[in-house]
Amino acid sequence: MKKNVIVSLADANYFALLEELIDSIKKFQESESVAICILDAGLTEEQKKKISNKIDEIKSAEWDIKVPGYKVKDQEWLKSQVSRAFLPKYFPNYEKYLWIDCDAWVNDWDCIEHYFKACDNGRLGITQ
Questions:
Q1: What is the residue-level pLDDT of the chain in tens, covering all 128 positions?
Q2: How far is the CA of 36 from the CAs of 73, 87, 118, in angstroms?
Q3: Across all residues in the chain, what is the average pLDDT?
Q4: Strands of the sheet with 34-40, listed across from one edge
């Protein structure tokens, strides 16, 4: 079983960027030992099917805290602002979690290793 996981979230509008992120991870041989999990905030069934063979899990994002409807206004992608604090709830079988926004990509695997190393001994590794 893979102990580390990279997680992202997207809706249908950001699907092309999500695909680029996934492909940028998969281009590294080292990615074989890391899971890729996706939080769905409005992907179509066709989009989910298209990436299903490249990722380990996909789950629907939820509002993990109470957020007034007038602040949300059908903007499901805003779940990313909340759900990343609850990643072990969605994907409980991993030791270390790395959140990467879907509009980013991985150019050098060393950065992935640095983030997972930063989380040794129960610590949090984070950057802006």
A1: 799 999 999 999 999 999 999 999 999 999 999 999 999 999 999 999 999 999 999 999 876 667 666 666 666 666 666 677 789 999 999 999 999 999 999 999 999 999 999 988 888 887 77
A2: 29, 12, 19
A3: 89
A4: 57-60, 34-40, 4-10, 96-99
Give the model confidence (pLDDT) of 92-109 as tens digits.
999 999 999 999 999 999
Neighbour-count burial for 43-74, b at 16+ CB within 10 Å, e otherwise: beeebeeebeeebbbbeebeeeeeeeeeeeee
* Alpha-carbon gap, residue 65 to 13, rounded angstroms: 24
Contact 18, 51 (CB under 8 A): yes
Q: CB under 8 Å to 119, separation ≥6 — which residues? A: 96, 125
Q: Is the entire prediction scored with pTM above 0.85? A: yes
As a whole number of angstroms, the distance between CA 79 and CA 21 comes to: 19
